[in-house]
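FAQ: What does the model actually see?

It sees only this:
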Amino acid sequence: MSDGKPALFVHQRTYKRRRLADAARMLPILGGLLFMIPLLWLDAASMSTATVMVYLFLVWAALAGLAALLSRRLGPEVDQPDDRSSDEEAG
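And it is asked to produce this:
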């Protein structure tokens, strides 16, 4: 029945790990877009430099927090004992 096609479904833990890795790859793009937002503000003449700096600091802090969260979730995976390890011990 197997004709060389890859499986359509993967383990849930593998799927979540891949999506987290995708989110980590998109984080710099999100950061770049968020850092460019002050360039699009229409009323830039009345916008104070302090307001823009506070915005940029908050974006930077949020990106650092998201990166820390993602790196913690993507950290080294602790292998769960499976049936193969018990077979090796028995044999």
